Amino acid sequence: MTRRGEFELIASLFAPLSRMASGALGLTDDVALIDVAPDCELVATIDTVIAGVHFRVDDPPDLVARKALRVNLSDLAAKGARPLGVLQAITLSEATDDSYLERYALGLGEDLRHFGIPLLGGDTTAHRPATVPGRGGPFTITIAALGEVPRGQAILRRGARPGDLVCVSGTIGDAALGLLALEGRLPACTHAHYDMLVRRYRLPEPRLALGQSLRGLATACVDISDGLCADIGHICEASGVRAELKWHALPVSAAAQRRLADDPSLRQFILGGGDDYELAFTLPSSHRARVQELAMRHDMPVAVIGRVRESSDSEKNGVTVLGDDGEPMPVEKSGFTHV
Amino acid sequence: MTRRGEFELIASLFAPLSRMASGALGLTDDVALIDVAPDCELVATIDTVIAGVHFRVDDPPDLVARKALRVNLSDLAAKGARPLGVLQAITLSEATDDSYLERYALGLGEDLRHFGIPLLGGDTTAHRPATVPGRGGPFTITIAALGEVPRGQAILRRGARPGDLVCVSGTIGDAALGLLALEGRLPACTHAHYDMLVRRYRLPEPRLALGQSLRGLATACVDISDGLCADIGHICEASGVRAELKWHALPVSAAAQRRLADDPSLRQFILGGGDDYELAFTLPSSHRARVQELAMRHDMPVAVIGRVRESSDSEKNGVTVLGDDGEPMPVEKSGFTHV
Fold first, then answer.
1. Please, are residues A118 and A17 in contact by the beta-carbon 8 Å criterion?
2. 0.90 cut: is pTM over it?
3. Which end of chain A is more exposed for a tag (fewer CB within 10 A), N or C?
């Protein structure tokens, strides 16, 4: 295995990704300097992804980098923020050799350009060799994303009110089915559907423009990382309300519909599967006409999937999904937790 | 082993550490909102520490937390910044059970109160069990620290000029000797000296107040994490200069002096050992009188240890240490790199 030293890695692979920001100081200083617009608040988030836990060891390195970046940008998107840049701390395993890291950095650079943001700084560390018992460890990526939002306009989880519409962007469940497909557990799938579902798992699309459009409009918003019901549940808990969704209203892709027709038990992956990184948000019902407008402007499906309800003691801020028969459906998988 | 789930861990151990900041949103949202003063720039840094690499597996968990925090605050200190808060991403190993994490959180909370800053947000993940080959991994802590500095006043690495004085705070080499002591490789040490050296390794003191005093005064500054010569070398490289230090001028604690008297080969740990987290900075020679003033105000040693020199091709922005005989000393260990 060949691997460059820490400083050489930074200089050759990562410093070029900082070029567009003078405050990144060419990644040669201890810190980055960032300007936040005077009428804005800084928005900050941090997320770790681990080989073998959050991504597959055989996922292409460029897509690993892009997904690690995108799951963080998705958190900014859900708050209506505009990204300013990211800090990256990576811990190398024995498998992340020069060739892996070159492809990783290529993907990261491509996406940073795509989103128009710089790499502001970072830290590169390595696990000890796994030859000693209790040593070694998987390739791990932690990204801290920084953004800005006009002061007081961040869309939090806690603003949902009874009567609000529950809305969601894009289609739901594709990423979970894509992971199933990669694991060889999704039978009878066309190549085109397979590719689409896997791509949805490997390369989520942070809904940054939609999120910014929701400022002053949505009363609460989350991105769907843990699963549709789990994440809308986070809104309910923070807002002290419950939500009633309708199964038939959930936006499901043609690829997923086809799989559901073959195997109705896959519905659990629509309700509980994570990793879609679409936005789920609540909207005063007086704004119903804006839903179509948002869909048109951002050229993506935006669906009304249910209503926010008052919470009673027996229901405890939960999420109910009513099936086609009007009866609550079981939701077996209530979202990932990463511990 | 008992371990709480992700949400319970956050609610019970970490959310209380966010209380002083409304923008942390009780750690229940996707992001934190932070106000940066309008006349200030945001200063951001990220650092990872890994059990078995950057700290010892048997280090007390409360001190592990405090050191992980402090090495990040030290980066802010070196730039003259005031800390605003931190984001924390931890990846648990099988050894980090509830009892470990409680002690960890206690230490983190204690230090956050000490420095008057909140935990702004975070992410909690876990390694897969080590029972499967290629799985498992060490407890890993990544902290991103955010601070602010009056616009244009951050002290960078690149401002050192020929003729400037090279200065350093505190005493140098104690942390490296402390690590040697913990490894049982430091012979003949009194209990008091042992405790002092180990404490310097386990609990560095970020020089935040000194760093802020250096704004508008120092031409360049770094914190000593990689080693005295390596870190002053970073200033030289960024500034296109070289530095000439004098061995007899280096501030060495009584405990370290005693060890050096017994074993002169330990001098390499003074010149090359890392982890002291003192500040090394350059100062126009017209400010020499300010050195004493800084030491008085901050109640700590501040020493002039050498001079910045013009760089010639043959010397290449390096650091020379002149021994008591006026001859350059060998510097064997030119600093840690973490890959």
1. yes
2. yes
3. N
